Design the sequence.
């Protein structure tokens, strides 16, 4: 009787691990968003120069997480929180600018981002098709988008900002699906902080693209 109660099939165990990883990862995403908001508030008087410094700090934290994820779960979570805080400090001048000049765009971008991530995240999590090809395509498309953004700095292209933002949303639709499929296929709970950082970056970039679109003409 005890043996029958304690026995669990591999499929059930995998599902339990998947559900645990999903819950932990999304919990980390929520906490990172909260720390990001705190950083944005604390950095509301920072200059653009300091924003660049905090971007570098956030990038350093993200790189460090890749080395600590197998060695220390606590340190990796600490780096994730430092990553969110540094990004919040880095983004503070931009958010303050929009809050002052066009607060409605912030709310519109936030709502659109929530719907976007929910829709494409659910699609990526549910699909059984291997999205590794989409991951490679999205990566190189992102590189091309960065180059296009550099060109826009020096060359005026009609509706260039709108084109840039729409292309960015298309690319991050793919990246969001890929990250959520990684979340479903992974069975290692230790990977939750890295997955959370990746999903949070997806959401932040989508938010910034929507912000550019909703603030056009202001």
Sequence:
């Amino acid at each position: 009787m005890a043996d029958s109660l304690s026995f669990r099939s591999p499929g059930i165990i995998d599902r339990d691990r998947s559900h645990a990883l999903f819950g932990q990862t999304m919990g980390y995403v929520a906490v990172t968003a909260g720390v990001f908001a705190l950083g944005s508030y604390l950095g509301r008087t920072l200059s653009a120069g300091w924003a660049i410094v905090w971007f570098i700090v956030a990038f350093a934290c993200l790189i460090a997480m890749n080395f600590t994820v197998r060695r220390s779960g606590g340190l990796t979570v600490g780096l994730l929180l430092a990553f969110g805080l540094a990004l919040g400090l880095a983004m503070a001048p931009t958010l303050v600018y929009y809050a002052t000049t066009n607060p409605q765009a912030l709310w519109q971008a936030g709502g659109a981002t929530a719907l976007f991530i929910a829709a494409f995240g659910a699609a990526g999590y549910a699909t059984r098709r291997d999205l590794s090809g989409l991951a490679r395509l999205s990566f190189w498309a992102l590189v091309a988008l960065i180059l296009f953004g550099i060109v826009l700095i020096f060359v005026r292209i009609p509706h260039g900002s709108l084109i840039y933002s729409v292309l960015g949303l298309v690319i991050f639709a793919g990246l969001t699906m890929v990250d959520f499929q990684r979340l479903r296929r992974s069975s290692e709970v230790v990977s939750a902080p890295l997955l959370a950082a990746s999903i949070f970056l997806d959401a932040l970039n989508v938010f910034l693209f929507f912000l550019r679109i909703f603030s056009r003409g202001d």
Notes: The chain has a mean pLDDT of 88.
